[in-house]
Structure formats: structure tokens, C-alpha cells
Design a protein that fits this description.
The chain is an all-alpha fold. Helix content is about 70%, strand content about 0%.
Amino acid sequence: MHLRLDARTKRKLERAAAYEETTVSDFVLATALAAAERIIDSHETITLSGSNWDAFHDALINPLKPNAKLRRAARRYRERTGG
């Protein structure tokens, strides 16, 4: 990957890399990967409060029996998808 940087930005990255005792390439890569992981996690992770977790867990452990509306929806789904 090639980046076009103005002189001020390049000096700032070099300074930060020096503080971390690493190369600019390694510094930029490590920083970019950490940011990527943080962003991906924020979009792909759901955090529940204690009471919401309890409700979710209870629904998994003690599911309600399907009512007529849910059974009809499942039947329509199977008919449309062939599954």
C-alpha cells in the first residue's frame, strides 16, 4: 500500500513510530489493524444489559411454543424457499 502524505503528517507518524520504537510501516499497520478491529467489533457485536441478557437467556432456555401465526409464517417460508 502506498500513501501520499504531506510533510507534517509524515513527521508526525515518524515521531509516533519512534516513541513506539518501531518503523513507520509497522506503526501504521498496527494502528490501522487496531482501528479496523474496533470498527468491525462495533458493527458486529451486540452488548446486552444484565436484564436484557437475562430475558434473552430465558427465551433460549425456555422457548414459548409456536402460536398459530408463527406456524403459518413458517409454512409460508417453507413454501417459498422449498425448505
